[in-house]
Each structure stands twice: as structure tokens, then as C-alpha cells.
């Protein structure tokens, strides 16, 4: 099953894909199934019921709506750094024996089609195409053998990184959390549509149509099950939390000359079996305010 979050005339809605056609309903009408976050909170049966309810919903013109991130305000966005050996090597780090975890905040999220924002503070905005695992079942101290039962599905992320700020301190949080730099979408795909643990999927990032990252999720050092189990040693995972699983080599910061995203660029992250997350790049604009006399 594939679900899309959207907004039309200011009203949020949820759509599902049927034979290549999106059908959706908004929250102010009859037959609204609930948001993806609400469905995940109830559990897998709710996703199935919602899919059935949307089977006869009106056809959705994607050009006439505002696409939203699948989850607009995840309680936890836990990102994983240095999770492909080739990326670790190009970054100049020793390969960690434990996942390198850092948080993102929902204020940084942008949707498919929405502009990723290059901040006025720096021009070092870099791309990182990544697989997202979406938690569907709560748990703490989850055994690796049970971990995938806690994953409801998957999506795509572009972990836009302001490298200048990422490297100001040993902790990466600031450089990973500028407003409008974390693209998430375009939709949510349930686990049953993909190989177990989303393994063996091609992942590719393109900047202005040119391939800049190309790998496979088989190359994750810490796979999805390992990440779920490891994170849950310390943190209770809850429905709607997301794990952003890491990026392969090819980042702009590791190139000579460096290849950063700039206004007017278009960046795409495609993962086999999920889809393509596409975003233009725009420059941050700070409104000038006149002084109060």
C-alpha cells in the first residue's frame, strides 16, 4: 500500500494509490480515514481499513494539491551517519563500530516538490540521499530478530547538510537542522511492498539530472533491523518515529572542486520500489523590517 499526505485549500488529506491513480479525501469531508500518523498510531489494521475506504474516493490531481511530508511532525527523527563504508572513507573518518546517531527536528522538513532552502549563513548546502524506515509499533529493548515487525514501511529522505556548520563542532546537529533542508517523501510505502528490511534496493541521487550518488541498500553497514534494535536499547520507539538510515558516497563536500547545491538546482533521490523525491533549491530570503520609531 502507498499513502500520500497532502493539503487542499488549507485542509489536510490522505490519499492511496490504486492502479497508478491516487484517490484521496480531506479531513473536513465524509469518509476521511485519518492522517498517516493517526493510522500508524492505531496499527496495521487501520492502514488496511484506510486503504479500503479510499478505494472509491475521488481521483486526486497531484497538480491541484500541496504535497506534504508523509509525516509532518514525527516525534523523533533519528538519523544515522557513516552507514555506508564508501561514504565513511570519503569523509575521512574511521568506520564506527556503533551507529553514529544524531537528531533532526520537524522544523527542518520539506515535502516532495517543495524547495530545499540554502540559508543565508552559508553556501555549503550538500545532498545526501537516504532510505527512511517508519516505525509502526512501539518498543524498547527490541531484539534484532523482532525488529522488522516494528517497521510499518519506508520512504525517502534528502538529508540536506550545511557542511560549514556541521563541522564547526564535533556534534553535527546544527548543520543538519537548518530550516527547510530535510526533504522527506514523496509518500509512504508499507513494508509488505518491499523486500524484508528494504534490502537490495538501488538508491540514486541526481543533481540537475546528473548522477552524483549510486549505491544499494545492501551496502548499509547497520541494516534496518540492527538500527531499530540498537536505538531501542536507549530510546523507546513509537509509531510515527522515523529512522533516516544514512547516505552512500558521492557527497558534494568530498569532491574537488566541491559540489554544493545552489539556487535554481534540482535534486532527486530515487529508491527502487519506493519512488523519486524531487526538490528545487531556493535561496533563503530574510524580510527586511523597518525600525519602529
TrEMBL record:
Belongs to the FAH family. Coiled coil: none annotated. InterPro entries: FAH, Fumarylacetoacetase-like_C, Fumarylacetoacetase_C_sf. GO terms for biological process: carboxylic acid metabolic process. It comes from the Bacteria. This is Fumarylacetoacetate hydrolase family protein. Residues 76-281 form the Fumarylacetoacetase-like C-terminal domain. It comes from Fertoeibacter niger. Keywords: Hydrolase, Metal-binding. It holds the Pfam family FAA_hydrolase. One of its GO terms (molecular function) is metal ion binding.
Amino acid at each position: 500500500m502507498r499513502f500520500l499526505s497532502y493539503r487542499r485549500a488549507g485542509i489536510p488529506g490522505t490519499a492511496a494509490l490504486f492502479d497508478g491513480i491516487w484517490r484521496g479525501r480531506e479531513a473536513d469531508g465524509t469518509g476521511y480515514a485519518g492522517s498517516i500518523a493517526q493510522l500508524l498510531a492505531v496499527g496495521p489494521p487501520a492502514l488496511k481499513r484506510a486503504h479500503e475506504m479510499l478505494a472509491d474516493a475521488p481521483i486526486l490531481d497531484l497538480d491541484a494539491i500541496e504535497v506534504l511530508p508523509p509525516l509532518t511532525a514525527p516525534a523523533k527523527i533519528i538519523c544515522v551517519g557513516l552507514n555506508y563504508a564508501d561514504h565513511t572513507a570519503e569523509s575521512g573518518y574511521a568506520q564506527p563500530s556503533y551507529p553514529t546517531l544524531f537528531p533532526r527536528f520537524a522544523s527542518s522538513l520539506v515535502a516532495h516538490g517543495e524547495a530545499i532552502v540554502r540559508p543565508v549563513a552559508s553556501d555549503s548546502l550538500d545532498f545526501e540521499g537516504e532510505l527512511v524506515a517508519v516505525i509502526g509499533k512501539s518498543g524498547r529493548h527490541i531484539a534484532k530478530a523482532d525488529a522488522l515487525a516494528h517497521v510499518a514501511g519506508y520512504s525517502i529522505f534528502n538529508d540536506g547538510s550545511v557542511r560549514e556548520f556541521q563541522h564547526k563542532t564535533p556534534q553535527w546537529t546544527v548543520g543538519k537542522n537548518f530550516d527547510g533542508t530535510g526533504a522527506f517523501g514523496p509518500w509512504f510505502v508499507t513494508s509488505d511492498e518491499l523486500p524484508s528490511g528494504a534490502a537490495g534496493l538501488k538508491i540514486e541521487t541526481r543533481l540537475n539530472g546528473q548522477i552524483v550518488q549510486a549505491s544499494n541498500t545492501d551496502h548499509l553497514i547497520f541494516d534496518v533491523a540492527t538500527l531499530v534494535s540498537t536505538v531501542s536499547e536507549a530510546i523507546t520507539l513509537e509509531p510515527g518515529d522515523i529512522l533516516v538510515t544514512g547516505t552512500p558516497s558521492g557527497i558534494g563536500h568530498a569532491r574537488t572542486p566541491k559540489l554544493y547545491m545552489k539556487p535554481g538546482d534540482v535534486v532527486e533521490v530515487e529508491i527502487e520500489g519506493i519512488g523519486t523525491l524531487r526538490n528545487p533549491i531556493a535561496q533563503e530570503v530574510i524580510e527586511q523590517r523597518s525600525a519602529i520609531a
